[in-house]
Amino acid sequence: MPVFESSFDDPLGMWAAAPAAQPVSFAVGEAPAPPEADVYRVNLSAQPEEARAELRQNEAAVVAVSAALDAIPARLEDLSQRTPPAGISFAVSGGMEESGPEGELLVMLGETDRQALSGGVLSFGFGEQASQVWAEAKARFDGLMTQIDHDVLHLAWVETNIEQHLIARTIVNWDGDAQTAWLEEAGDEQAGLHERALRSVTQTRLLRLRMFITIASGAARLSVLMAAPGGAVLALPAVYQYVTKILAQAREMQSIQTN
Amino acid sequence: MTDLFLNGIDADTGGPIDGDMVITSEMIAKVARGETISQDELDDARKRRSLDKTKVKNYGSIEGTDDDDLGSVGWSVVFPASLPQKSVDGIKEALKPLLDLRKEQAGKQTEKYYKEVIGKDLGYQNGESKNDFLKRFDTGPGPADPDFFPYYSLIVGSPETIPFTFQYQLDVQYAVGRIYFDKLEDYYQYASSVVAAEQKKMTRARKAAFFGVANPDDMATGMSSKELVKPLADGVKADYKDWTVDLIKPENATKANLANYIGGAKTPALMFSASHGMSFKPDDPRLLRHAGALLTQDWPGQKARMPITDSLYFSADDIASDADVAGMVAFVFACYGGGMPRSDNFYRQFFKQKKDIAPYAFLAQLPLRLLSHPKGGALGVFAHVERAWGASIQWDETVNDVRTFKSMVSALLNGKTAGVATEYFNSRYAEISTMLTEELDMTTPEMQDDIKLAGMWTSNNDARNYTFIGDPAVRLAVADKPTPASARTIIQIPAAITTLTAGFQPDVSDRSAAAPVKSADGSQATNYGFLDAFKKDPAAPADGSGSPGVGGGGALKNFVEKLGNYLSKALDDASSLEVTTYVASDLASVQYEGGKFTGAELRALTRINIDGDTQVCLPEKDGEIDMTVWGIHLEMVKSAQSNRAELIKNIVNAAASIAGIGGK
Fold this sequence. Notes:
The complex is a heterodimer. Chain A is an alpha/beta fold. Chain A has one domain. Chain A has helices at 48-82, 100-117, 128-153, 188-222, 231-258; strands at residues 4-6, 16-17, 38-44, 156-162, 165-172, 178-183. In chain A, helix 3 (128-153) crosses helix 4 (188-222) and helix 3 packs across helix 5. Chain A starts with a strand and ends with a helix. Chain B is of the alpha/beta class. Chain B folds into two domains: 8-485, no CATH class; 574-663, no CATH class. Chain B is 36% helix and 15% strand. Chain B has 18 helices and 25 strands. The relative contact order of chain B is 0.12. The interface between A and B is large, with 75 and 75 residues.
C-alpha cells in the first residue's frame, strides 16, 4: 500500500492514485467521504521514527518541486532570449543547439509551429509518435486544469492511518478552514504526524496551482518564438511536457539524496 | 400570513435564494399594492383577455388566420440595431439554412410575411417598448396581423440588447423565441438542426419523460413533484396511447439519471423537469455558467444548509460531447432555468431599490448548450427567467392548477408549434394581470386579502416570465420509425462560419465562460482539441504577426479568467479562519453531514477574524481545561495560520502571473 495515496491522479506525481477497484474513501465500515471531496490518505508505519521518515520524504519532495518551479521561469526566459524569434518552425532537424529538456522543448515547439502554419494536419513530420506525445501532454495539461478546478471548489478529506489504523480525519477547504476528528486515544506524537500529513496536502494543492501558472506563463513567454497565430495555446503541451520533466528530475534527485 | 415557495436555491448556503428572509404573502401583497403595471402592459393584457374570451381557435393572430401555419401568419427574425454590420453578416450566414427555410414557408405566398428586422434602422433599438417597436411597423397592441408584423418572431440577441421585458410583452400576443450564442458555429448548428428536424431528416420516437425532484423537507419540490409532474405524466399516458411515457419519481430523480434523459440512452422527444434551479451570488464565478442548473434529488434539502457543489446539480457542463439531444424539446420548471435578469424584480418593487443579481442579463447555459450541441441540437427549451413560483401550480393556495401546463404539453404532442403551445401561458398571464389590476382598482387595502393578492401577483409574474429559447416555429419531430443516431447527418460547419468567434457580438464586454465539456463516459473531454488549437486566432492579424497570447484559446482563457475569480474570492473568504477539533472513540462511526462531523464530540473551536478578533471555545474535562486536546488544537491552529499565510502569498504571486499571461 503506498504511503501517500489519493482518490485521483495527482499531476505532480507525489500522491499515488488508489486503484479504481479499491477506492480509498469507501472502505467497509468507515464513514464515506462526501462525493465532492478529494480523498488523501497517508499510511504510516507504526514505528515512530519510520513514520517520521516517511513524512520527511514527502516534505523533501515538496521542497524540491517548489525549488524547481521557482527556477523554471528564469530557464525559459533564458531560452527565449537565446533562440531566434519565429525561427523554430524551420529548425526541426538542424540549427538547434540546445540539449536536454530545453532541446526537446524547442523541437516540440518547432514541430507544433510548423504544423500549425501548414494548416494543422494531424500527422507530424517525424511520425505519429510525436503526435501522440503532443496529444498525451495536452490531455495531461487538461487534467491539471481539472484538478485545480476541483482543488479550489471542493474539500480535501485527509486521513492519517498508522499501521492501517485511522487516527485522525480532517476536512479542509481551499482557504484552510479545517475540521478535525481525532481518535480519543491519539497523543501528541500521533497528532504531530497527522498535522504534517495535512500540511503536505495543503502544500501539494498550492504546488499544483504554481505548476499551472508556471506552464501558462511559460507558454505565453515562448509564444514569441512561434510564427503561428495562437502560439501560446499551441505551446502549452510542449511546455507542460518540459515542466513535468524538470519536476520529475527534481524529485528523482531529491529521492537519491534522501535515500 | 403565509410563506411562499419558489424553485431556487442559493449555492453557498444551500438555502433559499433570499437567505434567511422568508418571502411572505404579506410582503408580496405590499409589492402588489405598490406595483404600477404600466398602462401599455395593462392594455395588452386586457386586449388579450378579451380576445381569449371571444375567439375559439386562434390565440394571437387576427381572425381568419391559422397560428400554426407560417404561410398564414408570417415569421420574422429580429436583431439588435446596434449589431455591427460585420457581425450581422456573420450571424445571417450562420443562420442561413433556417432563414431560407422560413422564407420559403412564410413568404411563399405573401413575400412580406417573411421579415428580417435587421440593421441600424430596422433592428430593435435598445430601450424600445413593444408598442414603440410595433409602431414602426404601423401596428399596435392587439392580435398579430402579418400584413404589418408577423406572428412568429425569433429574437437573435442577448437580453442586454433586446431586454427580457420586451420579449415578455411581445410574447403576450405574438409567438416569440430567442437565441443568443457565443459562437457562430453554434448558430449554424442550431439552424441546421431545426432544418433537419423539419425536413424529417432527424426524427425521434414518440416518447415523453417527466422528471420530478422532491428534495427532503422541501415544500416547493414536494409540491411540483406531486401536483405538477405526476398529473402531467398521468394525463399524457391516458390521452396519448401512441406515446411512451416515463415518469421519473423523486427517488430516481438523481443527477446520474437525468443524464440518461438529457443526452443519454433514454432521451425523449419531450422532456419535462421540475426542480429547484441554482442561484449564485453575483460575484460567484459559477454564476454565468451554472445559474438555473437543475438541482437534483442528490441534494439532501435545505435543512442540511450545506454549500451546493456541481455534484448535486445538472448543468451545461454535464451535457456530454457525444450526447444525443438532437431534435428534443425540453421544458425546465426551475428558477432561472432560462436565464437571469440583471436585477431582482421582487426586491426592486419591495425595497424600492435595485438589487443586482448578475453583472448583466443573460440566458442560462444549459438550454444554449442543448440547442447548439455539435452532434445535433435540441429544437427549443421552455424555461423560466427570474424566480419560478409555486403559484404556477397552485391557484389561490388551494386549487391545484396545472391546466396551463397540460394544455401546453398537449399542443406540442399534437404537433403544434412551440409558439402556439406557449399561448396558454400568455392567456394565463393576460387573465391574471387583468384580475390583479381589477382587484387593486376596485377594492381598498383594508378590504384586500393579502394571501389572495400575493397569489395573484406571483401568478402574474410567474406566467409572464416563461420564455422559449429557440425558434418559436419549431414543433416536435417525431415518427413511427425514428432516425437512428447512426443514420443522422453530421452537421459540418462551413469554413466561412468559423472566421468569427467570441467577441463578434460586442454587446457584453465580459462574456460568460464557455462551459467545459464532458464525454459520455463522464471523463473530461477535450476543452480545445488538437484541430481546434490549430484554428487561427480570429483576433490575430491575418499575416500572423502580433502577440497571440494565451487568450486565443477559449478554454485556457476561460480557465485563467475563472482562476482569477477563484483567487479573488479566496482572498475575500480569507477574512476569517476557523479551526474545529472533535474527538471520538471510534472514527469509523463519525459521519460528515451538513458541513460538520456527527458522531464525534466537539471539543474546541477557534475563529480568527482578519481584524484580529478571535473567538475560542476551550475543551473542558472534569471542570478543567483539557490540556491534551487543547495542545493538539493549538498546533492545528498554528498550522492553519501558516497555511493561510502561504495561500495568500501564492494567490498574490498567481494573480501577478495571471495578469502577465493576460497581458502577453
